[in-house]
Amino acid sequence: MKLISWNVNGIRAVANKNAFAWVDEFAPNVLCLQEIKAEAEQIPEPLFSHTFTCKHVNSASKKGYSGTMSFSTLPFEKTDTAWHIDHTHEGRILEHHFGDVALFNVYFPNGQQSEERLAHKLKFYSDFLAHTEALRKEGKGIIICGDVNTAHRAIDLKNPKANEDTSGFLPIERAWIDRLLEKGYIDTFRHIHGDITDAYSWWSYRFGARERNVGWRIDYFFISKELEPRLRDAFILSHIGGSDHCPVGIEIDL
């Protein structure tokens, strides 16, 4: 099974660029989008020819902001928006259950706006992990994908020294990913590729950052260790344009 996650930074803008054409060739089983910035009725149709049997949208209450969307060829037995975590109704979570697996499509908050927003991000992190851990105790394997808005290690961004005091690379944010891994979750890209460098998923629109590959790896697939034997591959599709992020993905037996 091929699972793809992509922060599109505006689904209508990406559609206008015909930037979903790759989906037909790649034919993922699950496609998770973040930052769609649209209500369900505003999403252009069709985006691609590839057929998905399930489609779910979680739009933010604030129009033109945030939001998540999932497409799937798998029959989801349950889908939830985890409102108790995303209590500000920013459309940041889609939680899908199928068989013994819970898949999370998440657009984690950005902490750069203010101290209050950073505190909100950290609480979101904490509440989210508590929720996934409760599901693990019920016997669920966990897949977490999306824009985590934090680069974990110095090799996950081009200029770590210059960004030590920037939200997205603060020690307190990176410590949450440490905690996630300590709890038995696996960074699938690092698990497959080790300490490969210059592998990024987001680039600023300014200063030709993408052309020069001055980026950050802030988009992830994490899986709980129970699913490790099923993992086959992990990858970054850095050649796909249309957003300031590129898609990331895994191949896994489900």
In short:
20% of the residues lie in helices and 27% in strands. The protein is an alpha+beta fold.
Topology as H/E string? Answer: EHHEEEEEEHEHEHEEEEE
Number of domains: 1
- What is the overall silhouette? globular
- Quickly name the level 1 CATH class: Alpha Beta
User: How much strand?
Assistant: 25-35%
Write down the overall mean pLDDT: 97
How many E-type strands?
14
Count the DSSP helices: 5
Low-confidence stretches: none
CATH topology: Deoxyribonuclease I, Chain A
User: Helix fraction?
Assistant: 10-25%
Name the structural class: alpha+beta
Tell me the span between the first and last alpha carbons: 7 Å
InterPro entries: AP_endonuc_1, AP_endonuclease_F1_CS, Endo/exonu/phosph_ase_sf, Endo/exonuclease/phosphatase
Site (Transition state stabilizer): 149
Keywords: Hydrolase, Magnesium, Manganese, Metal-binding
Family: Belongs to the DNA repair enzymes AP/ExoA family.
Structural features, described:
This protein has 254 residues and is α+β, with helices and mostly antiparallel strands. The strands form 3 sheets. It has a 6-stranded mixed sheet with strand order 3-4-2-1-14-13. Strands 5-6-7-8-12-9 form a 6-stranded mixed sheet. It starts with a strand and ends with a strand. It has one domain (2-252): 4-Layer Sandwich (Deoxyribonuclease I, Chain A). Helix 3 (115-137) packs parallel to helix 4 (171-182). Strand 7, helix 3 and strand 8 form a beta-alpha-beta unit. 20% of the residues lie in helices and 27% in strands. The model has no long low-confidence stretch (mean pLDDT 97).
